[in-house]
Fold each of these.
Amino acid sequence: MPGSPHEALLLLEDGSLFVGRAVSAGTRFGEVVFNTSMTGYQEVLTDPSYRGQIVVMTQPHIGNYGVSGLDEESERPWVEGFIARQFTAQPSSFGAEGDLPGYLRRHGVPAIDGIDTRALVRRLRQHGSLRGVVTTERSDVDRLRAELADFPGMAGRALVDDVTRERPGLVPAAGSGPPRARLAVYDFGVKANILRSLAAHGVELEVLPARTPARRVIASGVDGVVLSNGPGDPEPLTEVIANVRELIDAGLPLFGICLGHQLLGLALGARTYKLKFGHHGGNQPVLDLDTREVAITSQNHGFAVDAASLPPGCRPTEINLNDGTVEAFAVTGRPILSVQYHPEAAPGPHDSSPLFERFLASLPEPAAARAGSRDAG
């Protein structure tokens, strides 16, 4: 078994205590959630949407194929802690650049294994996501319990500023020739594969800090705006919501993904609420209410848009078949595409990847092309 035989602890706010093995040293507090993906652990680790959360993998063997720089969704892991039934120290893959336990240690992510993850996940499903502390350094359970009682829950926490970029950046369109369109991407914790997927469709991207004023985006003349995924509760992001409302009023085409979907709902006047244990994994079934087709989707979120609060002219178009939550909505007369799940996957199935093309096909003639037509005239 990898790591140290020394005891490691996971303590939950309901008093549950799990004792395991130390794989990577440290002590961190966070909301404990479970992820049902069978692969893609490195993408999970580096997804900024996991800021503030301790992640438990339901797949019992994690790390079988090692780690690779090609599998990272950002420059660093964002999870507060990582838990599995067993971490693999000797990976078997032609693409492995190292082992997972070593990767966790290099990045200072506390990690433990050897606990009964089935019992842990059953508790989280029964009671909902719980605050917890994972430690390989401390055994003072009473003191940890007192500290945990003072640790804030995820509701009400605005974490976007922890993960967004400091300054704008450009991502060129893939391929030769002029770009098909030019989009602004609000970075609320954007995954790299969202940017790769859009660039692969021949789109030039300007990636912006989370609190970039809407007026700057409107003045830039972009053909549309993408509102990315990200961590935390959307409701405290009042400045961001006001910016999204201004973009809606300006008539710019908008594509909301995950947190971006929730922010669109709030900007339109809807409400959001916290899910019991969230959707985290690559096997979430989603029903299209118009076509009756079902897609298996990749998801990572703990909040949802309240269907009953959607304003007139806004209707749910897709629902989650597990719990009936809103997975997409449409707005009459507005160029808005909004989905709760991740069309870029990474990890997960590719059922919903055509959504990128659907959004791009809905754009008006690109500004560059319009300018070219005027110049030619």
Amino acid sequence: MASITELAGIVRNKAADLQQELVAVRRHLHMYPELSMQEEKTSAYIQSKLKEYGIPFTAGIAVHGVVGLIKGKNPEKKVIALRADMDALPILEKNQTGYTSQNRGVMHACGHDVHMTSLLGAAKIINELSNSFEGTVKLIFQPSEEKFPGGASMMIKEGVLENPVPSTMFGQHVLPTLEAGKVGMKPGKYMASTDEVYLTVKGRGGHGATPELNVDPVLIAAHILVALQQIVSRNAPPQLPAVLSFGRFIAEGRTNIIPNVVKLDGTLRTFDEKWRLEAHQKITKMAASIAEGMGGTCEVFIDKGYPFLVNDEQTTAKAKQYATEYLGSENVMDLDLRMTAEDFAYFSQSVPSCFYRLGIRNESRGIIHNLHTDQFDVDESSLETGAGLMAWMAIRELLHG
């Protein structure tokens, strides 16, 4: 039987040999992105690759989700789950490449094409080495990460964490601030919960030249917007990271027309469920009270989204060890808290998990743009790292016993 060092070398060589195929897979997925819960062709492509690799799978979980199983020797001994998300974003891509999105107004601007490619590559490597480990690897291709209620919660409800039950789970996400060839991890709380906040301020519109005859919802909404900043600055515990931001303020009047209704849309992010609930109550009460005091009303709807994501301490310590074995300590970084959110959180709160970051940055080639932007791209050398490391983590965890 090969030693740990020898087996890591075998996985590295297989990942390197796969690089050309990985690039082709990623570019295909990038060219044909699909929005949340519309991933029909993406799912079909993934199924075709699993068939090509000789990996059995089940499709149609949470509509377009796909779950593959790779059984090693003694498959009941231990089960490891690996996850990739499938959906794209409603963004018009501005990159001019040979693989620019062909679905106008839809773009893989969050790296889900890389995530799927990495998992497919890892699946091929693991399957080819299935005689070298005991246990089973479950491959989870998940739809709808970008849209509430999130495909993770849907797949869990449909039994994705059963038959067989994983004891450990790994997920991967690209990070544009981290150089290609590197990965990053953080044990414990890592990514924030996320809620969408919708305010509808109602007054009495009219002519801008006769404000005394109106109840101005624009002014009321402005007061509410400013006052709600107190929710974090004066109500949240100072040691607790929290963000309340509004990105949409719709007042469809004119220079001399005050509208009847104004809408505000925002997001709340934090790392504590008790405070999260208190913040919901404070937002609702403050917004309604201000509106009432100024003669109007404010309807508040808070769409509760994903919980905060927590990386299991022991699992993350092992993941860091495995990554160091595979990439070298100089390529394994420690990360800080992030206020962004991920529905992998549902998995992380159900199974001891590590959700880690894959570097994709290459400044010399101008690959520097952030997630969810119309010029986002990746250094494709990261595909070899992503596929190989994910395969190694699964195999190494099974060898760990």
Amino acid sequence: MTLSQTDTPINVNDIPLDQIDVSDPGLYQNDDFYEYFRRLRREDPVHYCADSAYGPYWSVTRYDDIMQVELDHATYSSAAHLGGIAVRDNPNGKQMASFIGMDQPEHTGQRKAVAPIVAPTNLRNMEAVIRQRTEDVLDALPRNETFDWVDKVSIELTTMMLATLFDFPFEDRRMLTYWSDVATADFDAPGALVKSDEERLEILKEMGQYMGKLWRQRADKDGGFDLISMLSQDAATKDMSPMDLIANSTLLIVGGNDTTRNSMSGGLMALCNNPDQFAALRADHGLVKTLIPEIIRYQSAIIHMRRTALKDTELAGKKISKGDRVVMWYVSGNWDDEVIEAPMEFNIQRKNVRRHLAFGAGIHRCVGDRLAEQQLQILWEEILKRDMRIEIAGPVERIYSNFIRGIKHLPVRIS
């Protein structure tokens, strides 16, 4: 039983260890997950849950054990046809796969097709555009009235960036946000955009038709420097099926949206809730360099990633069988006090601040990690340049999900 399933507070230590189920999305909507993982790291760091809404699974909760799973690609698979990357089995895994849902060698070839768009040279080329858009968005924000930071800043900036990466019609750019939200929606969430796998797939097929049209326009034009052109022209991806195009488009949209968007919101929340850190940042703008990775760790926008055991193995003394779900809880590893000093503190001067798991590790590490950091850095540089005084002006609404640690609404006021 978890807090989200009852109206009265629960002492985590009163729950029998074998009944702890950290896959409950309510834990993350209520921001109540910390003590569950603290107990698991201490008492049962590789924990078997025999009965959940998604079936049985192993929870890997310590930083070092998560890294072991991340880097052992011969033992732990991301393959979509084996279940995919989430604790909930991918229902379409046998008919479609993105490169994050592939193992070697297929994974590397497809990933390399899109990697140039986030190469250092291109990031430098995009900096002026990102900065100008950030300036325009911030300067247009209302003063002395309450507005939703998620909608007017986080979504708007990330959606404009996605439109640039895909060379997507700018007037339709909010469709990218919509498709991302459809792809990651939990069917049981209040007001969920979709309520079934079939409904989700139908909408993603509509996305595939839109992307397919752009694909056909660009496939024979050499040199286009956008994600659709790269996929349609690279030898490793140009012959992918329409269903795999849907899968890869979904991956790139979600990957380019959720970490950055929720870190833009979560970072502001963290600074508002820690005024001493906000004051230190205002006093020394150079702290932006360490602020950004601390925001990314503290928000941990991707809650977990799942692997499937390819063979019988052992992890931290536990015997894992071939075919078992093995779930790496980034939100636990990023608060592991054996590795990260005082992890519950939001500390923008943290030593070894880049030692976090928010981008994953190994061959599946987020391909756009540096772009996400660049967008966040520019946002905070421009906020500081304007000496914007921002305060939270109402209840914050988090999303109901065990995969995306997201913020749905963040009412704020600029004084």
